[in-house]
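Appendix B, record 7
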Amino acid sequence: MQLPDAVQKTFAQLRLEYPFYIVLSKINGGFYVYRSHTWWDKELKKVRAKTVYLGRIEEDGKFVKKIEQPQPSPVYPIADYKLDKVDETLLTYLSMNCRYPISKIAKTLGLSTNVLVRRKQNLERRFGIRYLASINYLKLGYSTYLIFVNFKDRKPGMEDLKEALKDEPHIQLALSAQGSYDLVLYLLVENSAVLNSVVFQLRNNERLKDYESIWTAVVFDQAYGYVPLRDRFFDLLEKNVWHRSKTGPRPASDSLMQREFLVLRELNTDGGKPFSDIEKKYNLGHGTCRYVFDKLKEKELLWRSTLTMEGYNVKYQAMILATVINEGSFLRDRQRFLHFIIKDYNAPSNRFALEGDTLSPEGKLFIMPVLKEGELETEIEWLRSQVSGIKLESAIVTNVLVGELCYRKMDNANSEQMNTLIKEYKEERPKNSIDYSAD
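Structure tokens (predicted):
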């Protein structure tokens, strides 16, 4: 069998690393590595062989290990996630605006308010719903970065990783993974100098500094989904609050005021919290919180009041990284790609918890909840066959180390992707679009 030099070199190295016999097979132009085990079958009186798939070697010599799929945590059986039309509609309203009056939703559905309140409480119990504010960190002066980490020969344990990462306030989400990368960090930072400082400190952390690793940081432009902000982020944000001084006797129009900061922090913890409770906690006058809330929306510091399902049991979370290698080909399929992001999905959550653009390398990152076997492979195959000009890699999330993913049921008719399809591709807006702004 003719092998490219890079493939031959990698396979030779793997034979030294694995403590058992391995074989290499060429199938449809690809190079696949298997463990081979033979034994004597007494009944058949012959030697039999069994192979176990270990991974594939790409033409450039890169070895991509087989993805092991972790078992789901026992919260709710996946079969229990089927929703009727009322629950699905209610979950969508709460995802789009958790402060939308229940009485108005009940009227739309032709139900009594009491019935819908019970339905809401049932959904909250089933899925561990937590309400939160979706905060526009861009307006607050922060940019989003992803850091992809690959460890060489040894990997730190989960507890060491958690301890090394949890106290860094710029990190909003940290995922350990198996596949194309070992660790993915989602950060909010003020500028590249701060990013460099954060990476330096992390790599020199006592629990990480002795591990050989490669850290790759890329700009991330979040386009779909949301990552809830950790409360530790507000320790950073508090430094941006305006205070009277000789050099700044009056606030600028975009200054973050103390009351705005307090309301943002409270709503980040509980997006449905009554304004009167916040006013009582901070000794604010009646109506102050409502005024501040409206001001935050006017300044576009709040995207929406939404939810996340903390008790949403999935088999595992998966990541897909699509690197653009031919811009012209990709742009020709971009319209189809946008529809892929917002396609209907028969589940309590949207198809993707997070999607966005990466820069250098240019590409797209997806994080998706997988509810049943074969879903990840189906999505990858669709992208491979329907969207040209991209190279696909994937990984399985093995642990959420810091922060949380946001699972919710957004109305994709109101998504930025749909707005792009209407504006750039002259598509028609779906009929019966709903205005979720009432609160």
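Remarks on this record: The chain has 14 helices and 14 strands. Confidence is low (pLDDT under 50) at residues 71-79.
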